[in-house]
Design goal:
It contains five helices and no strands. The protein is an all-alpha fold. It has one domain. It is elongated and about 60 Å long. This is DUF2269 family protein.
């Protein structure tokens, strides 16, 4: 049973992290207001992948701990859960809020030049994404190498 849950965990990671790592690349491709509106609407539709992936990651991780109770005594396992939960504040709270603000800025834009406030929000999102990507890297390191 553990192997099946681990498989779901890995698929959820690919589904969630793959999309999340691609978001900044797609977002930075917009050079005009029209392109930015299209990109943000597309990203809002694609948000389902990281959302479902994130929920499946948490559920499957907890289930693996229930199946193998010794995992709850491992610092790397507990640390992974703590880091994961901390990052959810960014990916489920701050980033979607910023995306919504960017769309609001674009709705009030005149012409095709991207407003400075849109760019500033994009830079803020880039910082949040950088933190979440670093956390994902640390999580993968912890789960692969189990250092403590």
């Amino acid at each position: 049973m553990y192997t099946y849950v681990l498989f779901v965990h890995l698929i959820a990671a690919v589904m969630g992290l793959g999309a999340a790592f691609g978001f900044p690349i797609v977002a930075k491709s917009a050079k005009t207001v029209s392109q930015a509106k299209f990109v943000l609407n597309l990203l809002q539709r694609l948000e389902i992948l990281p959302k479902v992936g994130s929920v499946l990651l948490l559920i499957s991780g907890i289930v693996m701990g229930i199946l193998e109770t010794w995992l709850f005594q491992e610092a790397w396992f507990i640390g992974s859960i703590v880091i994961y939960l901390a990052v959810q504040f960014i990916v489920a709270g701050l980033l979607p809020k910023n995306m919504k603000k960017q769309l609001e800025v674009l709705e009030g834009a005149v012409g095709e030049e991207l407003p400075e406030s849109y760019k500033a929000l994009g830079k803020q999102s880039a910082k949040y994404e950088g933190i979440s990507h670093l956390a994902a890297f640390v999580l993968i390191l912890l789960m692969v190498f189990k250092p403590f």
